[in-house]
Write a structure and sequence with these properties.
Layout (H helix, E strand, L loop, with lengths): L1 H19 L1 E8 L4 E3 L11 E6 L4 E7 L4 E4 L11 E3 L6 E3 L8 E8 L4 E10 L6 E4 L9 E11 L2 E7 L2 E8 L4 E10 L6 E7 L2 E6 L2 H4 L4 H49 L5 H6 L7
């Protein structure tokens, strides 16, 4: 009977602890340290404090101030080796150089004059890269707008968004790790609005502002018109030059013909004989 009573009492205590257990979310950037804080300024000598991790609730730290026990454990797979520290006054747990494999549930149990339990849900986020905005190389040249892509690589648990001023235009979110994202945007070539691409997670963000004049400096349609106009001008210039050349050739031919006619005319006129010129006025001998 006594054993059954103890079992029932322990079950009620467990239910009570489960019902009063609170969950606190904690977010941290990979590589930093995080403090899981107990809500006391000083632990009691008769308190037994246990820190557990994961769904299997394996023990990672233990405190018994009365017996001067302040122990940390590496965990079954060694993921916490050289990463755990204990505050000997408050019993708080410090995780240093945290990585994504340390994300999850941490349970604090205080067994003493008063039973209490607290759970921390730790989220670990990687460093965010800067979004890269490029011109869409697959854009149809006949399009009247400029197609752009905002891209990031090797990201997880993030949202990628396009903004026009402070207004959200479009966004895409992922919860996977190490994935690549890209988000398209089309703008007019003469658009004077301010656009930006933002990559964010719950604790940080990175922004790249769009320089339309740099990426969308020439409209494909305008370029085609410009090329056509230049081509037409070249054709007109060629025709004019051809006409001028033909006219010049005609002029030269006419001049040559005239000179030849003059030459022929001068040859046809025979000069007077010098003998006749000498003896013409000499009187004949009688």
């Amino acid at each position: 009977m006594f054993v059954l009573f103890c079992f029932c009492w322990w079950s009620l205590i467990s239910v009570f602890v489960a019902l009063t257990d609170e969950i606190q979310s904690v977010s941290v950037v990979e590589g930093n340290s995080v403090l899981l804080r107990m809500d006391v300024t000083e632990i009691q000598d008769d308190d037994n404090i246990l820190w557990k991790f994961g769904d299997d609730h394996f023990l990672i730290a233990k405190i018994n101030r009365d017996k001067q026990i302040f122990s940390t454990f590496d965990g079954p797979d060694g993921r916490f080796r050289d990463r755990l520290k204990l505050d000997k006054q408050t019993g708080s747990l410090i995780i240093t150089n945290i990585t994504t494999e340390h994300a999850g549930l941490y349970q604090l149990q205080i067994i003493g004059a008063k039973w209490s339990s607290k759970t921390f849900n730790v989220f670990v986020y990687g460093h965010l890269p800067t979004p890269n905005i490029t011109r869409d190389s697959s854009q149809n040249l006949s399009s009247s707008s400029c197609s752009l892509l905002c891209s990031v690589v090797n990201v997880g648990h993030v949202t990628l968004s396009w903004y026009k001023g402070n207004s959200l235009l479009s966004s895409i979110s992922v919860s996977d790790l190490s994935i690549s994202l890209s988000l398209p945007l089309e703008v007019e070539y003469q658009d004077n609005n301010t656009y930006s691409c933002v990559l964010n997670n719950p604790i940080s963000n990175q922004t790249t502002h769009l320089d339309i004049s740099k990426l969308c400096h020439t409209s494909p349609v305008s370029l085609i018109v410009l090329v056509s106009a230049v081509g037409s001008l070249l054709i007109v210039a060629a025709v004019v030059m051809c006409c001028i050349c033909r006219k010049c050739r005609k002029t030269v031919t006419a001049v040559k013909t005239l000179e030849e006619d003059r030459t022929d005319s001068s040859k046809s006129r025979k000069p007077k004989s010098k003998a006749n010129a000498v003896y013409q006025n000499v009187p004949k001998k009688r």
